[in-house]
Amino acid sequence: MNVVVCVKQIPDPAETGSLNPDTNTLNRDSKPILDESDSYGVEMALQLVEAAGGGKVTLVSMAPNQEQAGLRTALAMGADDAILVSDEALAGSDALSTAKVLAAAISRAEPDLVLAATESSDGYTGTVPEQIAAVMGLPSVTFAKSIEVGDGSVAVQRQTEFGYDSVTCPTPCLVSVTAGVVEPRYPSFKGIMAAKSKPVDEVTLADLSIDPALVGAAGCGQSIVQVEEAEAREAGEKIVDEGDAHERIIAFLEDLKVL
Amino acid sequence: MGISSIWVYGEVVEGELSTLTTEMLAKARTLSDQVDVVIGGEASDAVAATAGAHGAGTVHATGDLGAGLQGVHVAAAIAAAIEAGAGPDAVLAGTTYDGRDVAARLSVALDAPVISNLVDLEVDGDALVGTSPIFGGTTNVKTTFTGGSAQIALIRPKSFVAEETSNGPAATAALATADCGAAGAAEVVDRFVEESDGPKLDEAAFVVSGGRGLGDAEKFSLVEEMAQLVGGAAGASRAIVDAGWVPYSSQVGQTGKVVKPDVYLALGISGATQHLVGMKGSKHIIAINKDEEAPIFGVADLGIVGDVHDVMPKLIEAIKARG
Question: Which of A27, A244, B90, B107 is the most core-located residue (most Cβ within 10 A)?
């Protein structure tokens, strides 16, 4: 069974983000890392391929530059290879054009199953996985808690507001995976060494026969008109617990008439 | 000029329109004179009554979707209506499991952009302008549509206040479904409802949330016990959802639920921007954290620099003692 996992290389969320004042897009100057949200999909893919007794895990990602640091992390976990769509014209792409580009790259791998996180940790539009499925004409199940591979189909537990739905879906299909449902393995030293020589197929928009005018800032169907500071919330009282802080909390709640 | 018609994707929960649907209707009414609801399923009298009372003229209903998923089938039906010239200028959907699917599928069907995570909407000329919070809600970005045959907007819960009108029930109209082919082949075979006592996380007046500072998964019981004592709901930071301690549905934050309770009690949560954007609209915030530099103190009305394992058992005992 061949599984494609969509992964994104993002600025480290622990660092304070900033916007480029000219383009109003996120500054991506620092060395990107693998979005932690994607590590669950990578782990899920590795487990499914192991359970199927064969096949491979291919990563698909896009970046305006040739950045690969995040991909190497996922390769070190055990993914077999990667397709990186890398083209300057991709800068400023919105969710829809991102989905079109990824869909074209994914098709090259002819997967039985496409996995993605439910949303990235930087842009967090949360629409790209389902848009990819729509572009490819595939059925999909979003917000999976678990996936079981059957004969020509997958059985998915889909998170709902009140529990979960059991959903069956014929393959090929796309499934988006919520965080925390599997424990991503740490790359071993051997894995890290092996990842250095795993194949990363760098493709351009021309390789995918995509018109650069339809993606990136040029093909974006939305534009940022204003960026402003949000109203800040004032910090209140801060005390150090000396064994009686619970009394202060009780008094606070009494004032609010909650107690 | 202006937006001549808006359809709000209505989600039906236990036979009723969801609160988020009525919140979106309240805003939509200020943006356009013609506001309708679209649902995947049968339009019951209760749904038509609620939709009408919140200002919708018509409920467009696909009829029973059987085992089919909402996203792909509802989007195909809306797209067909728009392509036939019988649809709206703009579609609003909630940032929910199904709402995001509808918006995403519709976007591809119409080759139209989606603007996501909106907490406010206004009209400028013929286009909607949406406001979304970034960097943990410290910065607001306004985005407008520049192309596409429809404007698709995803709205975060609790951005607007639902408001009833004196209107009677909405009219109902059948919305023709479209053949989705292979893309529509996923089927719901069973639904599991996890029983839980107390209010829902996004509706509770008191939310108690736990984070990594709890130390280990078992200590989440402190959060649950406190929530139960005050008649509230238990929530979680992304860190402990990622760690598998609690399910995704408990997550408060950018990639989780938005809560605005009267009181938000954060236990061992550092206050990453990811978390703050989901809870800083709470009326009153109390935070307990060992690290006096934790960013959560920047938004807390009452900050306790201390160990949740010391403070919470005493607090729980003291509240119990009050009876």
Answer: B107
